[in-house]
Structure formats: C-alpha cells, structure tokens
Records
---
Amino acid sequence: MYQALTFYHSLLRWLVLLSLIYAVFRAYRGYTRNRVFSSTDNRVRHWTATIAHMQLVLGILLYTKSPVVHYFWKNRIEAVHSTDTLFFSILHILLMLTAIVLVTVGSALAKRRLEDRKKFRTMFNWFAFALLIIFCAIPWPFSPLAARPYFR
C-alpha cells in the first residue's frame, strides 16, 4: 500500500505545481488586463484548491507511514543531526501545511470577493505565496537540506 501511495503522491505533486502555476498565471493576467472573472477562472481556483487538498491527504498518509519519520520520532536526539531526516520529519510537512492553508484561505477569499479585479488580486497573492513556500519545501536534487531526484 505504501508503494501505491507514493506513486499517486508523485503524480499528484506535479499536478499541484502545474495547477498552482496556471492559477497564478491566470490571476496575474486577469488582474493586469482588467478581465472579467469568468467561470473558467472560478473552476481553476476551485480545482487548484481541490488538488492541493487531495495532495494534503496523501501527504499525511505517507507521513504517518514513512520509515524516516518513524525513525525521527523514536530517535530524536540522533535524528536532529541528520538534515535529511529533519527536513522530511519537520520542515517539509510544516511548510507544505502552511502552503495548503494559504491556498485554502486564498481560494475562499477570492470566491467571496465581489469585484473581479479583487478576486484576481486575492487569488494571485495567496496562491503565489503558497507556490513560493512549496518551491522552498521541495527536496530538489540540488537542495542542501534533502536532495531527491525529480522522478522516482
């Protein structure tokens, strides 16, 4: 089951990135060009948040099953000295949870705005900040904290 979860998690993480990038792009373009917040924009907002929430559920399941996380919580004194273990046990999950909260709040606020320009601005600000946090929390192959390949 753990391998199946990691497979879907790998697919979904790219969907989260792509949907957030696309949503930020649409929000920026809509705001700068003073466009009407269309039903397509609303669907992009909604599905971006939905995909992020799906990733959250899978991520929490993987977190609870992860041998790295189990090791960290059983051997905190030794594990703190390993940046890789510390990254995946504490830093990664905190940053990703923060990003999901930002996407959720941004989506809810954008949905409730009355003016189209404010909807785009709200969506852009919250989603772009969440995207920035996600980029910081990704274990890139070049990361000094925890390097992982792009595709496993």
---
Amino acid sequence: MFDIRDIAEKREIMQIALPDAQKVLRSGMEYFIGPHFQWLPSYEKVARWLADNQKRGLMLSGGNGVGKTVFCTKVLPLIFRYYLHIEDVTIIDAKYLGDYYKNPSDYYKIVYDKNPIIIDDVGVEDIANDYGERRDIFSEIVDDAEKRARLIVFTTNLYADDIKTRYGMRTLDRLYSIVRSICIEGQSMRLKTI
C-alpha cells in the first residue's frame, strides 16, 4: 500500500537545546556590551528560546540599543559554532539585502542554503528592482525558510502591524509559523555611554 510518509522528505528546523542558556547569554552579552550591559527582563525569554527553541527561529523586536543586534550578530553565532558545531552561519545586514540579489551566488546562499540565517535590522532594506520587477527579498527568504525548514533569526524595530503593512499578511502569517517573537523592552544601553 502506498504511504506518502515513506517517500516524503522529512524536514525539520534545527533544534537548539543549550544547557545553562541564561548563564551563556548573560556572559556573551556582558562581554560584547561591556560595563553598560544591563540584564533586561525580556532576556529571560531569549534564554528560554536558547534552552529549547522548539524547532522555531527567532524574531527579536524592540527599540534601539536594547541588545538585539549584539545577541544576533555576535553572541548567537558563537553559540552556533561552539555549542552546536555549526561553522557556516549566514549573517546579513538587512540594508544590503538588495545587493545580494544582484549577485546570483550570494543570492543562492541566502535563499537556498540549509544553514541558519541571521538578518539584522529587517525593515530598513530597499525593495530590489529586477528590470522593473519589484522583489521583496525578505519575504522570499521567509517563504524559503518555511518551505525548506530553515532556521531564520532576525532583528527588527518593527512590530507585527508594521510587518504586515510592509511585507503583507502572507509573510506575517508565515513568520508566525516559523519563528518565536520576542520583544525586548528597556532603555537604550547606548545612552549610558554618553
């Protein structure tokens, strides 16, 4: 008897189960932010995600200076390398997403690669223009992440309504299915350096 489960490709997003997640997160954030680091209550949620991501990616939203970029571009890649032995993590500044589209090998890497992808500051990127056709690279990456069960982590200053307005309900709906959304609340740690 034919059973689709016998031939279907099993795709699952990478499982993260970091022992001592809170300790590792605190240590990494303190190291990169320095003496102005302040443990914010929202970091507890990030530590819980690191302890068990439930095979979902992560969307960190919130105001400026609360540590989103430091976590995603500095701390998390080290966690991937040291604890999960993943050497190849794609880290992209969102303002350059349109540039990736212009280079086919770079575009292939961010859209079709199987390794985790981290995008910093989603919402600041321009819409790519392909001979008059407007392409929203972030929405394409989200589509691909869902289809290929790829772990996606990103930071943004946008909230759900802003994402819906900018990228559409389709992208927002897909995000809800593949990422955990955590809003980091607190005052900018950068202001403490002035």
---
Amino acid sequence: MKHFIAAAAFALLGTAAFAQSTAELAEQYVKMPQVQSMISDLFSPISLGNQVAAGLPAGMTLTDDKKQRIGDVMATAMNDLRPRMEELMISGSAETFTTDELQALIAFYGSEHGSKVMSKMQPFMATVMGQLAPEMQALQAKVGPEVVKIIQEPN
C-alpha cells in the first residue's frame, strides 16, 4: 500500500511537471516554424503589394513594378509590427483555445501533412482573394455610398 501511494503521488507530480499551461502552449504554437513562416508570408512584399492592389477602387490598377515597390515599403513598415502581432496571437490563442485544442494544433501543424497545409495556405488564399478582388471592388463601389451615409450620421 505504501508503494501504491508513493507511485500515485509520483504520477501526479510527474503529470503536473509535464502539463503545460494554455499560455505556454499558445506561445509554443505561435513560435512554431510553420506559423512563423505563415506570418512571414503575410508580411512579404509580394503579399502586401497584392493586398494594396486588391483594395484599390474598380478600374484602378498597378503595374507589377508599382506593386513590388509598394510591397517593399509596406513590408518594411509592417516588420515593426511583427512582435506585437505575435504577442497578440499568443494572448489570443491562449484566450480562444483550450490546452487540448492547442496541443492538437501543435500536433497537426508539426506533422508532415500539417506543415504542407500551412505552407500552401498563403498562396491558396492569395489566389482566392486575387480572383475575388474584382467582385469585392464592385461590391465596395455598390455599398460605399450607403456606408459613407451611415458614417456621416450624427451620433
């Protein structure tokens, strides 16, 4: 019986020592190379230049050179925000996900398939958003006057 109690106490202590808090798991998740690569892709000159181009009014286009130059300017500026973005991702992940969910994210994105999925997500979304951009611009032109009217209403 004495050995059973000692073994149970050891098991509980061992479990507590290996258990990670939600905050620790959130930081581990955000610091994963796959997640860091995704952030780098989001902050890349190409991605940022394309985002600016997609947000332009209908009929306004940018040359590839202008998109690249705008992307370079934006990427340099956004690089200063990266630590803050990571901080917000860590706190947001800790608040949003349970420890089990964070462990599942870490396991998935750390796996061969998860790593491949993460590496393909940015180009996938860039393609989707690039194809959707003209429709989004048309929608913005359609609802823009109504949105401006609402904004200009007195509080």
